[in-house]
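Internal ticket - ligand job 434, zinc ion:
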Amino acid sequence: MSKAFRSVVVCSVAIASVAAVAQTPAPTKRVMVRAGHLLDVKGGKMLADQTIVIEGDKIVSVDPASQAKAAPEAVTVDLSNATVLPGLIDAHTHLTFDPGGAGYSRLGISTPREALTGAKNARITLEAGFTTVRNVGASGYSDIALRDAINAGDVPGPRIVASGPPLGITGGHCDNNLLPYEYHAQGDGVADGIENVQHKVREVIKYGADVIKICATGGVMSKGDDPNASQFTFEEMKAIVAEAHRLGRKVAAHAHGAEGVRWASDAGVDSIEHGHLMDGAAIAALKKNGTYLVPTLYLIDWHRENAAHSDVPEFSRRKMQMVSDAAQSNAKQAIAAGVRIGLGTDAAVYPHGLNAHELAVYVRLGMTPLQAIQSATVNDADLLGWADRIGTLEPGKFADIIAVDGDPLKDVATLEHVKFVMKGGEVVKNQYGK
Ligand SMILES: [Zn+2]
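stdout (structure tokens):
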């Protein structure tokens, strides 16, 4: 018997025994959630006395309690004194970084250590009610490892759409500019010129990226670059978007300055991150192209309130001031202009778990509480390309469910105190007892 033939025989025996085991599947787990109030985030209606039936990790029905179908052998979760919503989504996190890791101290953190920091912050973020995040920038593919560990059930955490290392130009916001020439330090995602950016998109996808993050302008927390200056050229960004979209990945562009925002939007990126130094023409481009804006604004409040113990490196202080002054009025104009907004926080610039504080900032800048909640649910689900699986409580979607006291349509800050979290039908946190 040839070696190849022998392994075919061994394989078919193995498959046969797997098939025998598969004939007796474990019974599907059923859960009934009794909701005192349930927010239909799409229609904006607050519904009283609803029952959500869950089988496995999916919702099978949402009905008034009086009409709910019987679900035999279901475990009941009583949220009759709470308001129930879909799990929140944050489209801009850095789970593998902690505050205080900016500047030179970051050079002492290894990739394995970064991944473990990510495991800690994944749990904190999930318990804060964020059942899905888009993680846009990590070193050494630590975010991909974290995503895979969560999906395997090894560590608790939100669903993650991960970017791997962000793409950027030599010396730009996404390069490593901390060390002198003789160290030859370079960011993992650095690429210059059309061919090199195409190659880099293919490379990060090869190592597991779900989304492509790029740095279209300078940034605040990086050394030696200007947030107002565009970095990738328009041609480079068009090449990145074409390559990413062809390979089924969306593109998120870090951009502050007006020209970079306009170029990135016209090049076809799916979202602009920050947009803090936009102008009227840049806002008009976002509106015309249907580009999402992910404003990341609570970080400014947090840094103002915690100036004493926030460790912004010296080379960032002046930039932080410049961006802080303009960011809120620009976001306010974008909201008024009807630009599509996806909630994102940049958590890591401030402590993880405070993500929901972003909602009240949007309301302060002109959104209704419902619109703010939509930015963190239906809008972000659409931005992530996951509108078919998350963002609302509807049959066929993942049973990603949170609950709070009070009425978030009256006071969106109630979502800063999430008391119940379920992800994929599994209860992660329950402060309402049984
Ligand atoms: Zn960021």
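Auto-summary: The pocket of zinc ion is lined by residues 92, 94, 136-137, 346 (CB under 6 Å). The chain has two domains: 30-87+392-430, 88-384.
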